[in-house]
Amino acid sequence: MAPPAPDTSTLGQLRAAIGYLNDVLLIPMFTIILLETGMMMLQSDTLTLFAISNLAFCVSFFLEWVLGLVMAPDRRGYLLRFNNILSLISCIPFGHIFQTARAFRVLRVVRVFRLAIRARRYRGRGERLLQMLSLVGSTVLAGALALRIMEPQTASHFPDALWWAVVTVSTVGYGDITPRTDAGRIVATVLIIFGVGVVGYIAGFMGSWLDADEEEAQRRENARLHANILRIMEHLELDPVRDDEIDLTDIHT
Fold it and tell me: In the prediction, which pLDDT does 2 show?
């Protein structure tokens, strides 16, 4: 299906410009999230800079969300769409609202899923591969960050938390790193549930990828047979036929 035509209205151009800006902001946003959550020990002036930057990110993404709501032909459907709900939650500056409540601060990792949400909008070569990688990467990274926030003593280094998230999402669970608190076990439970879906998504992607290779080989074979038929008919001085008048299905069977 062809992509929708770009909106040339003023609001449409403004939303597109903010969308491009937010795509670029994903890089510094992820960097700050990793530094802020992964290192844990930062100077106060650095934390202040990170807090201001995070607030600016939230404002920019929220502005794009609001413009999408204003321009949506079905605003109720826009509000009820899962991706839009997740995008709205990711715009809430939890770090400013909940400075000490760890159970609420962990919701900041929802921002990580902005990568998967924005990857779904991409249309082009390798779009399904990009969407799969962004979903898996977002899930693993969110799980690692959540464990670091809820149980910093369990995963003292961010690579340890990342390793734990990988084996948990894959449902392997080696047990070398194990949550010890109720909050950590809740994070692990949610990640396992998401992991089952992610593994299924990867399996479906690999299956469709293999089927696509077979379909492409079949199309090439059909094109070769079609060219041979046309050459034979030309040699026999028969009237040429159109492509839709040649059924190559019976040839293979």
Answer: 45
